[in-house]
Design brief:
mainly alpha; 0% strand
């Protein structure tokens, strides 16, 4: 169930990016790029620990 929820969140952000980006990427404003980057960064920060790559390398999984 968690996987499907995360897929939906990724799909929402991907749709947002495709809707907001102009056809010519060179015409995208810096503000737009920073806004979209913030959305992706927020998605990564909100991932559950078991989906994060760093978690696999942490001490918790070494025990």
């Amino acid at each position: 169930m968690s996987y499907n929820m995360q897929r939906l969140k990724v799909a929402e952000i991907a749709r947002c990016i495709s809707d907001l980006m102009p056809n010519d990427p060179s015409k995208a404003t810096c503000e737009l790029i920073l806004t979209l980057d913030a959305k992706l960064e927020s998605l990564l920060n909100d991932l559950p620990d078991f989906f994060k790559i760093e978690f696999a390398d942490s001490e918790k999984t070494q025990r």
